Amino acid sequence: MNILDKIVIDKRKEVDLKKELIPIQIFERTPYFDRKTISLSDKLRSSQTGIIAEFKRKSPSKSVINNTVNIEDVAMGYEHAGACGMSVLTDEVYFGGFLDDLIIARENCDLPLLRKEFIIDEYQILEAKAFGADAILLIAAILTKDEIKQFSELAKRLNLDVLLEVHNEEELHKSLMPSLDMLGVNNRNLKTFDVSLETSKTLSKLIPNDFVKISESGISSIEAIKELKPYGYQGFLIGENFMKTNNPGKSAKEFIAELNK
Ligand SMILES: O=P(O)(O)OC[C@@H](O)[C@@H](O)c1c[nH]c2ccccc12
Asked: What does UniProt give as the signal peptide span (predicted)?
């Protein structure tokens, strides 16, 4: 069994338990549920740099990345740095994140927030809205075509943007549909952890231009971004490169300033 299969099995158990503890109707009565969201895809379309900076404490491929910084400081730091959006990992077991991180980020910055989660149930989409997210991630590798359609249409009804993540041609073909806003190519294979920017380059020409294209993972230099831009990428999702430093906001600021030169 690969790591992705394992994550999905654990996630199913987690979501089933949560559903018993906190019924879905509670989310509809929370203050953020009717909040006017900020569109990440719109911001990326008009951005020069397109950096989506991620808050990630640990990962299955790297174990601990940063256990000391707090999310308040990082959310403020990423906004001050000029990031276009912020991605918040909410999976606890494998990535050391919490759903509360989303609320804390929401209270400390006005960036569009992407809930980075292994979404396998509509419940998690309502939860994302209640906890202040502006966008959700859907991972093609763990969803059927029907699920992608059903989940993305629900997200649209809640005014959440949808980022659909693919890693190969087959996943891309089953996923293209109008209810998606952004198409993300993950340079990291979630089953083997191999990272290659070539994945973004090869898949770019198969993504129609009505979707905002995002290159995800393994981006650690200005050169990488300059290399990817000609392939039509408008968004760049960067986690570890910022989070491995003791001041992720500061390193994002330096990176974005360099990119703007
Ligand atoms: O830390 P990196 O290599 O810059 O990667 C960030 C982000 O792309 C990565 O965390 C990610 C992309 N897709 C995911 C799906 C689930 C969990 C994590 C991810």
From this structure: none
